[in-house]
């Protein structure tokens, strides 16, 4: 079945999906749609059903937006995917009711992505092992500080399907002394699944509203790129697959440090010229960092892909890291206070990444080669005034 196939009338699950609506908030006219990169046939599923089974681990704003797209695609391509897509929701009581119940009854994630209707074949599930049961395609999208706990659960014998594949949409890095690792690599190492990376200029709410954008997936094999393109490509979410898993992962992680710098610029009341300089220097440091420490990564991932330049731009203008850093420069309040005040339970990723990258560069005696990253660290953690950002760059 092609990507444009219509929804089947008899889904293969026991739940009643009879009133399922599959439509993006914005419908792009057919004539302006890019041709789908999805091939007619996908690599075979290892399940007896012959179908791939998708699950999503994480239900914050980005987790919910990606789960929405994956569930819509699973529904449309019902002969290749199980219709039901499970999404792990860390249970929380919201207005007196468990969040999983709210999501499954109202099809709204009122806590993290309010006002966006989720497809009815997306099922909020509180226990991780139920989420991943028989899943062959696992999307990791928890804030990075919680990944280790999740992987600890999944490592237990018999929890994951032995032929499962994973993709990480998490932005950050793992540092141990002089070693640095992407989360795709960490996931692969801890649970043994081949792991791709998804990253791009993708502010969750805009994606969920169906505003056109692009994303990049970095995949370790051609099979992975076929499968993950089929899971995520949509008329308003154009997927481009590349081989550079590290470049895609690092683009997403490092741009959050630059976004903090952009927020400092805004908080200081400086103008577009300064911000443009920060973006240029930031892109240069991001690219050189990846080329220096991740063998085989490609400069073009940063200059040509949504995961590089495009994500940097959107985050430096519209992201949470920028917003919180602006507040930091204006008020001098600590980031954890600002995160609670401005993000309504969502999580800031850039400050922890700035610290991880600083620790790594210090261990490698290379801090002097990345002055912007270093300044962001010093402002965020060592009391350097934000106005010192541009001194000596
Ligand atoms: N929101 C966005 O626009 C985008 C986010 N990302 C990345 O996606 C990843 C996930 O971000 P979001 O979905 O935005 O999450 P979020 O920032 O909305 O955080 C809320 C999520 O954190 C979970 N959480 C809170 N405390 C927890 C705990 N103790 N243990 C486990 N989970 C806990 C909540 O259950 C919820 O799923 C991050 O790495 C982020 O950088 C990537 C692209 C866009
Ligand atoms: O990664 C993002 C957009 O691609 C979102 O960035 P923030 O976490 O700064 O909102």
From TrEMBL:
Any one annotated GO CC term: nucleus
Keywords annotated in UniProt: NAD, Oxidoreductase
Positions with biased composition (Polar residues): 1-12, 21-30
Glycerol-3-phosphate dehydrogenase NAD-dependent C-terminal domain sequence ranges: 244-390
Residues the record lists as binding NAD(+): 58-63, 146, 204, 320, 347, 349
GO molecular function, one term: glycerol-3-phosphate dehydrogenase (NAD+) activity
EC number(s) stated in the UniProt entry for this protein: 1.1.1.8
Catalysed reactions, as listed in the record: sn-glycerol 3-phosphate + NAD(+) = dihydroxyacetone phosphate + NADH + H(+)
GO biological process: one example: glycerol-3-phosphate catabolic process
Record: active site: 255 (proton acceptor)
PROSITE patterns per UniProt: NAD_G3PDH
Binding site for substrate: 171, 320-321
Domain (Glycerol-3-phosphate dehydrogenase NAD-dependent N-terminal) ranges: 53-222
Region ranges (Disordered): 1-43
Assigned protein family: Belongs to the NAD-dependent glycerol-3-phosphate dehydrogenase family.
PANTHER family recorded: GLYCEROL-3-PHOSPHATE DEHYDROGENASE, GLYCEROL-3-PHOSPHATE DEHYDROGENASE [NAD(+)]-RELATED
NCBIfam families linked: glycerol3P_DH
Name this protein carries in UniProt: Glycerol-3-phosphate dehydrogenase [NAD(+)]
Annotated source species: Kwoniella bestiolae CBS 10118
